[in-house]
Amino acid sequence: TLFDLIKTQKDIPIPMIRVIMRQILQGLSYIHSKGIIHRDIKGGNILMHSPTGSGRVILKIADFGEIKNAQNNLQQSIFMSQRGTPAYMAPDLILANANNLTKADSKVDIWSLGMLLYQITTHTFPYNPHNEYEISQQQFVESSSKDVGI
How far apart are CA 86 and CA 78, in angstroms? Predict the structure, then answer.
């Protein structure tokens, strides 16, 4: 998995990171075009395969246990209270309750991919990944203290 690569290789070359991100984005683009939101994008859910002698890597998005079908709001999650992995979870999902959980859209997957990119390049997380409350507090404080401009 991508998680295994991150765990074992300290300095992943930038060209390899570009290949990894491009393939994950292509996969997300495809599932989003089908109206599917994954909601648990993380290194452990990205399978990696390198065909012998090819010199290339193929990535696949796995573990669709938390998906949501955006087209008909069909909730596919087995556990409504567990919506993903806290360290990668978008603020929308951390702060969501049962009533507004179905409002999550494809942006939550892009947020998770951003967290994954941060982890690949720094080998850490910008927030404490062990406590949903602390993560949401840090996200709220940091987002409200920054001047968001274009």
Answer: 17
